[in-house]
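Entry for the shared binder. Reason: the reviewer on the internal report wants the predicted structure included alongside the sequence.
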Amino acid sequence: MHPIFAKRGRLALYLIGWAPLALLFTAWFALRGGLDGWQAAAVALPLTLIAAYSSLAAWYLCQRFPVRTSPPMRALGAHLMAAAMSSGLWVFLGWSWTTLLAKAPGFSGLDERFYDLQPTLFALGIPLYLTAVGVHYVILASEEASAAESRAIGLRLQAREAELKALRSQLDPHFLFNSLNVVGALAGSDPAAARRMALVLAEFLR
């Protein structure tokens, strides 16, 4: 399972982390596209949401090409191809969205203005996706380190338990032998002390 969906609340935090980028895209559409604030937000917010969700797909490719075991050029080629495809799909969905918006009152000509921004948007989509790849590799490394630490703790506990079992197997016969000899010796000379020791031994063994 993707780590963003593994625990409740992570998806909300992930989307909140994209909020500054949504504001930057809104400002960029307003300045470069000549859109007013409402129009820029109507384009930027859905596009940012699409980018946020599509970037999650990088997780599965990062799992397919681990850093330590995958040939670097092969992994890089796969990620670049995925980045280009993701960016192209992102631009296409943006064009589809603005085409629909252009039919609504107040958004006339929006698709034409978005058309001029498509090359730049495609170029921005590639490093955006590659940044997501880097983040997912960091998450993978963190999970591997956590799993290795858990395994190490488990192995230490197993080793300690094995040592205790070995110690018990060595000490128990000698301990009982010596204790019973002492109780037997006291039974003749000091029955009360022998009784007390027998009770103490029974409580200890219990």
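Summary line for the report: The two ends are 47 Å apart (CA to CA).
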